[in-house]
Amino acid sequence: MPPSQVKAFARSPGTRAKIDRIDAELIARFTIFRPDAGRTLSAEHLRLLRASTIRRVQVVVMRKRLLAQFPAHRKSGTAKLFEDLDGELKKRLDVAIAELESRISELLGRDKHLADAARILRSEPGIGPVASSTLIAELPELGALTGEVAAALTGLAPMAQDSGTLRGKRAIAGGRRAL
Q1: In the structure, what pLDDT confidence band is assigned to residue 96 with cuts at 50, 70 and 90?
Q2: Which domain holds residue 73?
């Protein structure tokens, strides 16, 4: 949401005080008055993209847990007992992941702005389709933030430790959990 629009909205009823509670109330009223201000992506489209990326992570975790059981089955001598079931389950999870990745790609391709954002993100070494779609879904304001704010929102900014044994040290912490 552009700060200039919020400031103009704040001046409209004649509010001049500058305290956090009043600022928060003004921003809340502004978002009710102009819910799509500053958004480049519709709430529905963002909701679908976010749900798809979250579901992909969930299915990948399921597959990872299944694969972690294979050595335990071999070690205990039960690998033959579960071989067919585990193989079929792994195939189903692989298909589900591929279908979700296809849906995510389709959602990103529906919007020129999103497709451009994905292309720019993927041009960076180490950023592939999964990382770029997750960044777009969980940090839709990316591109309108300073580097410091983006680092803080992703949990990559060094934060001062003001208590405990780490007093005076800095460590990365916080941020949006999915990122």
Answers
A1: very high
A2: 43-144
